[in-house]
Amino acid sequence: MWTPTKRVKYGVAIYNYDGNTKFGLPLEVGETVHILEECGDWYRGYSTRCKALKGIFPRNFVCPIDSTVTHEGPYEIVSSNEDPTVQEVAAVLREWLVMWKQLYVVRGRSRRFVA
Fold this sequence. Notes:
Strand content: 35-45%
Helix content: 10-25%
Distance between the termini: 56 Å
Number of helices: 1
Radius of gyration: 16 Å
Order of helices and strands: EEEEEEEEH
Shape: globular
Protein backbone atom coordinates (compact mmCIF):
# COMPACT_ATOMS: atom_id res chain seq x y z
CA MET A 1 0.00 0.00 0.00
CA TRP A 2 1.43 3.36 -1.04
CA THR A 3 1.63 5.86 1.83
CA PRO A 4 2.78 9.50 1.72
CA THR A 5 6.29 10.00 3.05
CA LYS A 6 6.61 11.95 6.28
CA ARG A 7 10.36 12.45 6.77
CA VAL A 8 12.06 11.73 3.44
CA LYS A 9 10.99 14.22 0.76
CA TYR A 10 14.07 14.71 -1.40
CA GLY A 11 16.87 12.45 -2.49
CA VAL A 12 19.78 12.16 -4.90
CA ALA A 13 20.18 9.15 -7.17
CA ILE A 14 23.35 7.25 -6.30
CA TYR A 15 22.91 4.65 -9.05
CA ASN A 16 21.53 4.75 -12.57
CA TYR A 17 18.08 3.21 -12.88
CA ASP A 18 16.65 2.52 -16.33
CA GLY A 19 13.02 2.38 -15.16
CA ASN A 20 12.54 -1.11 -16.60
CA THR A 21 9.44 -1.85 -14.49
CA LYS A 22 5.84 -0.83 -15.06
CA PHE A 23 5.58 2.88 -14.14
CA GLY A 24 9.36 3.00 -13.58
CA LEU A 25 11.07 6.40 -13.44
CA PRO A 26 14.49 6.38 -15.15
CA LEU A 27 17.19 8.03 -13.02
CA GLU A 28 20.79 9.01 -13.58
CA VAL A 29 23.47 9.35 -10.90
CA GLY A 30 23.27 12.79 -9.27
CA GLU A 31 19.68 13.45 -10.29
CA THR A 32 17.50 15.02 -7.59
CA VAL A 33 14.11 13.45 -6.95
CA HIS A 34 11.09 14.63 -5.00
CA ILE A 35 9.72 11.65 -3.09
CA LEU A 36 5.94 11.57 -2.71
CA GLU A 37 5.08 8.07 -1.47
CA GLU A 38 6.68 4.85 -0.30
CA CYS A 39 5.74 1.18 -0.41
CA GLY A 40 8.18 -1.39 0.95
CA ASP A 41 11.49 -0.99 -0.86
CA TRP A 42 10.10 1.44 -3.46
CA TYR A 43 9.53 5.18 -3.67
CA ARG A 44 7.14 7.03 -5.96
CA GLY A 45 8.03 10.53 -7.07
CA TYR A 46 9.46 12.66 -9.85
CA SER A 47 12.75 14.09 -11.02
CA THR A 48 13.16 17.79 -10.35
CA ARG A 49 14.27 18.08 -14.01
CA CYS A 50 10.86 16.95 -15.30
CA LYS A 51 8.09 17.37 -12.74
CA ALA A 52 5.39 16.14 -15.12
CA LEU A 53 6.83 12.61 -15.30
CA LYS A 54 6.12 10.64 -12.13
CA GLY A 55 7.11 7.06 -11.48
CA ILE A 56 8.55 4.50 -9.09
CA PHE A 57 12.18 3.70 -8.29
CA PRO A 58 14.03 1.50 -5.78
CA ARG A 59 14.55 3.04 -2.35
CA ASN A 60 18.19 1.90 -2.17
CA PHE A 61 19.03 3.78 -5.41
CA VAL A 62 18.43 7.13 -3.66
CA CYS A 63 20.28 8.87 -0.84
CA PRO A 64 17.88 11.03 1.21
CA ILE A 65 18.56 14.76 1.57
CA ASP A 66 17.87 16.35 4.95
CA SER A 67 14.87 18.67 4.56
CA THR A 68 12.12 20.42 6.51
CA VAL A 69 8.42 20.15 5.68
CA THR A 70 6.00 22.96 6.47
CA HIS A 71 2.27 23.02 5.74
CA GLU A 72 1.85 19.26 5.33
CA GLY A 73 -0.74 18.03 2.88
CA PRO A 74 -1.39 18.70 -0.81
CA TYR A 75 0.28 22.14 -0.63
CA GLU A 76 3.27 21.24 1.50
CA ILE A 77 6.43 23.30 1.33
CA VAL A 78 9.71 21.37 1.44
CA SER A 79 13.00 23.16 1.98
CA SER A 80 16.47 21.68 2.11
CA ASN A 81 18.51 21.88 5.31
CA GLU A 82 21.80 21.72 3.37
CA ASP A 83 24.34 24.48 3.59
CA PRO A 84 23.85 27.04 0.75
CA THR A 85 27.43 26.45 -0.42
CA VAL A 86 26.73 22.72 -0.79
CA GLN A 87 23.55 23.50 -2.72
CA GLU A 88 25.44 25.81 -5.11
CA VAL A 89 28.26 23.33 -5.72
CA ALA A 90 25.73 20.54 -6.37
CA ALA A 91 23.82 22.75 -8.83
CA VAL A 92 27.02 23.58 -10.75
CA LEU A 93 28.04 19.91 -10.90
CA ARG A 94 24.60 18.98 -12.26
CA GLU A 95 24.98 21.61 -14.99
CA TRP A 96 28.46 20.38 -15.84
CA LEU A 97 27.24 16.78 -15.98
CA VAL A 98 25.11 17.59 -19.00
CA MET A 99 28.03 19.25 -20.81
CA TRP A 100 30.58 16.55 -19.96
CA LYS A 101 28.17 13.81 -20.93
CA GLN A 102 27.50 15.49 -24.28
CA LEU A 103 31.20 16.04 -24.92
CA TYR A 104 32.62 12.66 -23.88
CA VAL A 105 29.80 10.13 -24.04
CA VAL A 106 27.65 11.19 -26.97
CA ARG A 107 30.34 12.73 -29.18
CA GLY A 108 32.98 10.25 -28.04
CA ARG A 109 31.30 7.45 -29.96
CA SER A 110 31.61 9.22 -33.28
CA ARG A 111 34.93 10.99 -32.68
CA ARG A 112 38.33 9.76 -31.76
CA PHE A 113 40.61 12.02 -29.78
CA VAL A 114 44.21 12.02 -30.89
CA ALA A 115 46.93 12.99 -28.43
